[in-house]
Write a structure and sequence with these properties.
The structure is a single chain. The chain is of the alpha+beta class and 181 residues long. The chain has helices spanning 3-16, 35-43, 77-86, 115-121, 125-131, 162-180; strands at residues 19-24, 30-34, 45-47, 54-56, 67-70, 73-76, 94-97, 110-113, 146-150, 157-161. Strand 9 and strand 10 (157-161) form a beta hairpin.
């Protein structure tokens, strides 16, 4: 059988398949998820050896997230599975993989959080620096010893150790005096 006939047959089966639920697409339209859609997703997912994760074996983004085509849109598979199993995600929230496995689409591993919380839960530089309790010279980041500055334009925040800043300024003053003498 050639691929055109197979595709036509698959589309016809999907059209006849009963609707299971409805999800909202990125453009705001509703999409009726059918049994055929669920089969297509299940065919490209495997349960991990420990039984804790459902790992996507289909197409992935360059960042490692599973992706699936639904209603004319390519969407993250973990989001589609969450929408099908748990319902709508509030607009101000994103899904965080508690398991830290990007291609996992197990709804039990997903939790809606704010974007900021998702970043801070991660393993990127922002999260790593936010978890630091001491500066590179060993001074503790306390309210009395920490200067927080906000950059104009970008609004990015920076945390600086006041003890190190004072030491640096003292060394600069001494160096200027030595040059002036």
């Amino acid at each position: 059988m050639n691929s055109t006939i197979e595709t036509s047959t698959a589309n016809a089966e999907a059209a006849e398949s009963p609707v299971v639920t409805t999800i909202e697409l990125p453009d705001g339209r509703e999409y009726r998820v059918t049994v055929g859609d669920l089969r297509r997703i299940a065919d490209k997912a495997e349960v991990s050896e420990d039984g804790q994760h459902v790992l996507w074996t289909g197409a992935k983004t360059p960042g490692g997230y599973g992706k699936v085509h639904m209603g004319g849109h390519t969407m993250p598979v973990h989001r589609v599975v969450y929408l099908i199993s748990r319902g709508q995600i509030p607009d101000e929230l994103v899904l965080d993989h508690r398991c830290r496995i990007r291609h996992c689409c197990n709804p039990a591993c997903l939790v809606p959080v704010t974007h900021a919380e998702n970043i801070l839960r991660g393993e990127g530089p922002t999260a790593i620096n936010a978890r630091k309790t001491h500066c590179k010279n060993g001074h503790e980041f306390t309210p009395e010893n920490t200067l927080i500055s906000i950059r104009k334009g970008s609004g990015r925040t920076r945390r600086r150790c006041l003890a190190c800043t004072d030491d640096y300024e003292s060394e600069r003053r001494q160096a200027r005096r030595a040059l002036a003498a």
